[in-house]
């Protein structure tokens, strides 16, 4: 997962509106979102190679989403898969505070990441690359391949566009949210970060929707929770371009004792 844009307790009728893109190598196999046979409460896609996931929810209202940090000089080939950081939280009943304690103890074992986790009442953030554990305040936020709300061009553009959408629409439109996630505008060179990837890759990766020769946006996901605690989850999987895709959609009411 390479860009997560979300409004947390910002829209009066929707305590959570989340729009996210997963960027990955095209040849890495993955499965579309379903409720898992081995964990029936969990709704998520799945990385076939390692078994974890990048974003998921549960029937009890738990939410978790992951991005990798783009730190090319410090990547360790023997590090465990970061997808299990999402999976382990979703499959458990541990509190977010206790899970943060686990991340503080074991987070150094993984390559750089940021994890958003919690529920619609309270969202948490943990990064093993400097910021540690924080409770996310109400507002509109963006998590790219750096720290939360870092002013990278695509993160800032995504936040600004999400704010405009939610300010102008009493009910968030899936069409406008997916259009936001399909934005292929690239940043000018003077705005690009230097993460060790090289200028050509930085240009490709600077758009919200990434289209590279071997790596790019594989799927987009919307998670929308309304004031009646109805959760709508839509995953759009792409077949080479944002105009060629398949969708899966799930809608359910969060179990009452969890809000």
Write up what this structure looks like.
The protein is an alpha+beta fold. The chain has one domain: Penicillin V Acylase, Chain A (4-Layer Sandwich). Helix content is 20%, strand content 39%. The chain contains 5 helices and 13 strands. The protein has helices at 83-91, 96-106, 153-168, 174-181, 199-205, and strands at 3-11, 14-25, 30-36, 39-47, 55-58, 63-68, 113-118, 123-127, 132-135, 139-143, 215-225, 230-241, 244-253. The strands form 2 sheets. Strands 3-4-5-6-7-8-9 form a 7-stranded antiparallel sheet, covered by helices on one side. A 6-stranded antiparallel sheet has the order 10-1-2-11-12-13, covered by helices on one side. The protein is globular, with a radius of gyration of 17 Å. The relative contact order is 0.20. The mean pLDDT is 92.
The stretches of 5 or more residues where confidence is low (pLDDT under 50) are none
Helical proportion? 10-25%
Task: Give the termini distance in whole angstroms.
Answer: 27 Å
Shape: globular
- CATH class equals Alpha Beta
**Proportion of beta-strand residues:** 35-45%
The whole-angstrom Rg is 17 Å
- Quickly count the helices: 5
Average pLDDT metric? 92
Quickly give the CATH architecture: 4-Layer Sandwich
Fold-level CATH name: Penicillin V Acylase, Chain A
Total discrete domains: 1
User: Which structural class fits the helix and strand makeup?
Assistant: alpha+beta
CATH homologous superfamily assignment: Penicillin V Acylase, Chain A
The biggest sheet amounts to: 7 strands, antiparallel
């Amino acid at each position: 997962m390479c860009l997560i844009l979300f409004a947390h307790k910002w829209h009066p009728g929707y305590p959570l509106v989340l729009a996210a893109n997963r960027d990955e190598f095209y040849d890495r196999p993955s499965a579309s979102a379903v409720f898992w046979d081995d964990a029936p409460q969990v709704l998520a896609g799945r990385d076939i190679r390692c078994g974890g996931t990048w974003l998921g929810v549960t029937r009890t209202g738990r939410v978790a989403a992951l991005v990798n940090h783009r730190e090319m000089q410090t990547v360790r080939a023997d590090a465990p898969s970061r997808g299990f950081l999402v999976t382990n939280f979703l499959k458990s009943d541990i509190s977010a505070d206790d899970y943060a304690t686990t991340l503080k103890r074991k987070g150094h074992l993984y390559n750089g990441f940021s994890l958003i986790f919690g529920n619609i009442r309270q969202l948490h953030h943990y990064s093993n690359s400097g910021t540690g554990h924080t409770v996310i305040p109400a507002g509109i936020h963006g998590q790219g391949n750096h720290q939360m709300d870092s002013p990278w061009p695509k993160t800032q553009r995504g936040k600004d566009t999400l704010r405009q959408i939610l300010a102008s629409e009493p009910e968030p439109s899936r069409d406008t949210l997916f259009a936001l996630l399909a934005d292929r505008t690239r940043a000018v060179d003077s705005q690009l970060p230097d993460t060790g990837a090289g200028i050509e890759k930085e240009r490709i990766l600077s758009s919200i929707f990434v289209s590279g020769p071997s790596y790019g946006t594989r799927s987009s996901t919307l998670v929308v929770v309304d004031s009646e605690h109805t959760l709508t989850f839509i995953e759009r999987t792409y077949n080479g371009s944002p105009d060629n895709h398949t969708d899966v959609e799930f809608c359910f009411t969060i179990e009452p004792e969890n809000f």
